[in-house]
Amino acid sequence: MPQPRDVYVPGDFANLNGLARDCAAAADADVDFSQFQGVNFVFNTNLDCCSYGGTGSLTLDGGTRGYAMTWLASNVFNALGTIAHEVGHSLGLSHSSGSYGLVYDSRWDVMSASAWHPVPGTVQSVGSHINAYGKRQLGFIPAARDFLASPGTHEIILEKTARPAANGHYLIARIPTPRFGPNQYYTLEVRGIGGYHAGLVGAGVVVHRIGGGGVTPSNVIDPNDDGALLVPGEQFIDGVNGITIRVLERVGDAFRLRLDVAATPQVVVESPLRLYVVTAGADSVITDSARVTLVGMPEGTAWTAGKQMSGPLSVLTAGGTGTAMLRWSVRTSGLAAGQYDQSIRVDAGAFGWVSVQVRVRVLAPSSLTLGVSGPVRRDSIIAGGQRNTFNSVVIGGPGADTTSWTLTTSAPWITMVQGAGVGAASVQYVRNTAGLNPGMYVAELTLRAPGTTLPPLSLLDSLEVLEPVSWQVTHRGATRTTLGQGALPALDSIRVELSGRYGTSAQWYAVQGIGSYYVRPEFPGPVGSGWVRFRRAPADLTPGAHPATIRLYLAADPTQEYDLADTLIVTAAPVGITLSTRVTRDTVRGLSSLSEDSVFVQPTGPGSSSRAWRAMNARALLAFPLSGSMLPSQRTGPNWIRFIRNIADRAPGWHVDTLDFLEANGSVVLAKLIDSLYVAAGPVPTTLAMSVPSRRAELRAGSAVTLDDSVRVIATGDEAAGIAWTASATAAWITLRATAGTGTSPLRWTRSAAALAPGWYVDTIRVKAPSFGARASVIDSLRVYAAPVIAGDAARPPATMGAAYSDTLRLVGGPTGTAQWSLASGALPAGLTLEAASGRVHGIAESSGAFVATARAVIGADTALRELRLSVQEPVLAPTAVIAQLLGGASLNADALRYLDLQGNRNGRLDVGDVRAWRRRQAPALTAAQRAALDTVLGAGGTP
């Protein structure tokens, strides 16, 4: 690159146009850019915070052309998923997320969480596939495999979107949600089956809401746990739009679904937002079209189409009947530089209407360009907080360095800090939530270059104001400790609990607080509740008490801080040296071998971090490699020192040497290292060993899922590097991925339980090298478990209203672990709850009747469902006993008193109102004499 890094990254944001221009120019002699539609710019250093994907123009090879572009910093080279994420942006894909205000956390789409899954055996991390909404945008899903649900009941088979089979099954199902708004709908897709989906929590049907429900165009209904998956027996119900989605069964890599869609009339236009970019002076006619679909309307319903404002747009289709094509054209001749917004209204009369938005962006013919590195900004801040945000204004072309610009907005919650500049520079403003209620806020900011023909540029800034999150910090270990001067750092930790609506998804950080120059916490912290691990390093602190803090703050609101106080007591310590080990040793064979070792040296006492020290070997049999400009055997402060053993002229047998450690100018030995070397006379035999003696795993019986595993075969001896070995296993459920290897290398295999019954299976994988007489083995155990089932009858033991009830559900089968219990549908009687950790239904039933609910037990990646039928009976009480109790006697037990109180005002005691309510409810079952006796005590109020 022709310029230093700070020219391209002048502040907090990289100058992407400058990077693209100069990087492309450097390669222009070797690349014909006219033959390409996209360019990946790859850099050998970090840019600002991130890598980027988008579009831009380059004037190369005879013309100015638009390109898909990515700017990839060096910190993504081990994150292939991030590269895919930025390429997605260059192709026009936006972020996806969920309904909880964050953007980069949904593992169901590489356009959200991009590189969260480490690839076994590599240093790479990847994400999952693009979701079905994005694949449909890019044209990867053919129309024949795209199901649009109309009102009624449909039964379809949905195939996996990752490497789908050529069987004609649908790859995406779209269900309109008209009551949420125009052009909003659900997408259904199958995820979690093999390949890049291997790291997901399981296989099933995932639901995204499109056009609403979050801060991005595509939002997963549930987050990263298995709550996002619909598996056979589960259903999703949207009562607002009258939609029920049921997963009936799994069919290979597909799932059979039943969709019940209420007949809500809706006009649907495919891709209702269109953008055309042209250069001023171009004389062209752009023709485009979209499919109009009438949902929930009688057959033959007519619709009309017309433009809603004057401009360069012409509607070519005045109307149609049912599903038909809408066509229009835009003439660009005579249009000055600027932005032209047009709309077409598609109207189905009483059934509703929808608009097609058409935007024409005319660029100035001058080569001067104006832009920003991020035209859309988003953030989430806790109510009451504020946060700065930065962006880069990018100006290119002749005169760019002297072109002035301004950025303005009318949004009251945005305060400009730096809203004007000259040339490429940074803009800064503050988002302030003061006075704002929790919710979504969107502001439009306008970037102008006065005195030029450049059209104003609109930027969108979205702010989600979150409900407050409260801190609760639980200490683990001491918050006060004692260390000597120059001592090694001491580790400690605290537990941070977040509560509140967003407590489970809030990102937080731990940093050094006031006076805490010796406390170094981990950064950043986790999402939701988690641990902060930190170390106290006394270094050169003077003896005495040193108070400090660890400051915790939320990413969504840095002003909400929590300071953890800590005290370090530093005690006086004499000048000394501590070694990481006091004994080193090695074995060599032959005088040509090289033997070296190292030790970590920690000075202690005052000035330990800057004190110079030296190592000395009186016999000169241990040599020290040169380290920088220092003497070979001298270092400063805590440091490693490496030494090489002189093997020449050593006879076979043991040789012992001593390393003395002293101050650089001192003569007193402060520490000693004893080094031993064994020189062997004959060859060292070649042997094989395993890195671990055994492995174990679990799989469900009959499951198509396989489990990979590996160990390392370790070869030692004079000929270890060239030893050839073979591996074998006898069990049919083990498949070796390679049956031979050389030297120290991995041994990998795959387990399958597809043909196994539940039980324990054990096999020995043997490795041998017959020419060396070497062998080793690893024992592999596989527990095959039956699919989990909730045992017992659907009809549960009856409960009595007012009496304590307890019934524990029991799970049979499943993997090792503890099940989490919940209700998949229905409800328990009021007063009864299902404990999530134990499966125990308990409490005091507060109403009588028959109740039906579906219990769900989730253990590992498996889910079990069981319908529960529970009846609550009312106890039979003798009227005489009730009267006696009311008049001051003690003839009823606590359950009966509670039951009567539940009949009336539920105030925790028996009174006349409770008995009157019971008498009215029991009137049909009482005799005339019993009713008369009760009425005598209760008065006229007892008559029903």
UniProtKB/TrEMBL annotation:
Domain of life: Bacteria
Official protein name in the record: Uncharacterized protein
Alphabetical list of Gene3D superfamilies matching this protein: Collagenase (Catalytic Domain), Immunoglobulins
Molecular function as annotated in GO: metallopeptidase activity
